[in-house]
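[#protein-structures] MJ: dropping TerB family tellurite resistance protein here for a structure pass
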Amino acid sequence: MAMALLDQIRSIFDGDPGVRKVADDPVLSAELLMLFRMILADGSVSESEMVAFRRICKDAFGIAETSIDAVIEYLNEFGYETNGSQAIALFRDLDVERRKLLARHMAEIAKADSKLAESEVRLLRRTLDLLDISPVDVVKPEE
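AK: finished. structure tokens for TerB family tellurite resistance protein:
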């Protein structure tokens, strides 16, 4: 209880911890921006895509549920400074498993609404090409 209160007080003075985590990690920021671009690729934001995005934020990146709205707001405010090519460029030097994880997360969001739009397929295909990842690596279960 006392720790939760201290975290809330620290959050007031230091800003949201989830936003700080994203702002301090350019690769994480780029990945979240790419996931957000996938949400927007078909021209609409579905509830199921946002549920998938929130789940990925929480499970894969350790962003607290209470921080996700602030993270989304941060991405909306500062994401315009980074285009898709710049975001992908940050991933080219990362190990192949991290690049595969980005591709799997993008595919998860694209499939979340049970409709795979051509624009989503194009974005995923282009991303896979830029990351030098095979489509097989996206559908193959993690080992």
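MJ: nice. The radius of gyration is 16 Å.
AK: one more thing. The chain has a mean pLDDT of 84.
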